[in-house]
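Hi R.,

As promised on Friday, here is the backbone we talked about, encoded as structure tokens. Could you run it through your design pipeline when you get a chance and send me back a sequence?
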């Protein structure tokens, strides 16, 4: 099965699950509607985002859209179950929790439940989600289950999504991922993926999706007193008249292994501002000022 083509810009589903602050169902729907109106056709989510809330909201907002017109990805590795244990960062009731499960049955159950919440019969990309402390099971059982789903045509592409680079490198070397999602690993503030992960993915033809580019809003709406590590970045962007959010979005795509970036939003206005910022030109001199051009392999 041919993996789906990844657009350069996609909508990340974390805020749809009340990441960092709560929004209403109507506000979530407006975010997706604005993304669609701005031409975004890639949507990423996960059961963990709001413990199913993001998937339900995204599915409701996309209902009625032709399924062939957009790319949809979700994740497996946590099952949403009743009982207290609200995840950090998400403003949701404390009546559900996430249970780690990278077993074959757990992955199959996770996908089945995700499809129900999303209101669709398939996702294009399925990712193992944050297997940091579950490496053996995630590789031997979880990823094997994903490969089985891929061979059956249930999903078009499989991979891994994480907030670290070393284990993503291990998955590339020991498994057969079609795609990787690297969160906070190839950003203006954090660049560990450039050392080994991105060159390896370029060599093997594995596209990378970059997420976590704004570092919880730090690079989208910098505080009046920014941390020391951010000040030279802000100064360089100011010198070249480029919003730091624009630089943050464009930076990962300078490496040819990065095919797509994900940007989350709590409001429709944020979506429109992000898309406009994404399409702003960035002078080459700014990249030099920010530490040099990224090697292109």
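Update: got your reply. Pasting your designed sequence below so it's all in one thread:
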């Amino acid at each position: 099965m041919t993996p789906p083509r990844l657009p350069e810009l996609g909508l990340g589903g974390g805020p749809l699950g009340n990441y960092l602050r709560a929004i209403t169902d109507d506000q979530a729907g407006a975010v997706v509607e604005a993304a669609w109106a701005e031409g975004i056709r890639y949507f990423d989510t996960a059961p963990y985002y709001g413990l199913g809330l993001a998937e339900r909201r995204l599915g409701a907002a996309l209902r009625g859209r032709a399924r062939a017109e957009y790319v949809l990805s979700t994740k497996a590795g946590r099952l949403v179950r009743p009982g207290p244990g609200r995840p950090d960062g998400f403003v949701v009731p404390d009546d559900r929790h996430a249970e780690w499960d990278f077993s074959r049955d757990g992955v199959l159950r996770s996908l089945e439940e995700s499809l129900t919440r999303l209101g669709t019969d398939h996702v294009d990309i399925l990712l193992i989600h944050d297997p940091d402390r579950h490496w053996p099971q995630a590789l031997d059982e979880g990823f094997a289950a994903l490969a089985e789903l891929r061979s059956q045509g249930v999903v078009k592409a499989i991979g891994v999504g994480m907030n670290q680079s070393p284990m993503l490198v291990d998955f590339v070397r020991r498994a057969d991922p079609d795609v990787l999602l690297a969160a906070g690993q190839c950003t203006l503030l954090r660049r560990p993926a450039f050392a080994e992960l991105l060159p390896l993915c370029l060599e093997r033809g594995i596209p990378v999706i970059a997420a976590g580019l704004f570092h919880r809003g730090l690079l989208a709406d910098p505080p009046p007193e920014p941390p020391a590590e951010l000040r030279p970045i802000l100064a360089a962007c100011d010198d070249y008249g480029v919003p730091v959010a624009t630089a943050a979005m464009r930076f990962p795509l300078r490496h040819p292994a990065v095919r797509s970036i994900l940007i989350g939003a709590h409001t429709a206005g944020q979506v429109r501002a992000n898309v406009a910022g994404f399409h702003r030109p960035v002078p080459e001199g700014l990249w030099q000022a920010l530490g040099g051009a990224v090697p292109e392999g």
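One thing I noticed while checking it: The beta strands are 9-12, 42-44, 71-76, 78-82, 96-100, 125-129, 157-162, 179-183, 208-211, 258-263.

Thanks again,
M.
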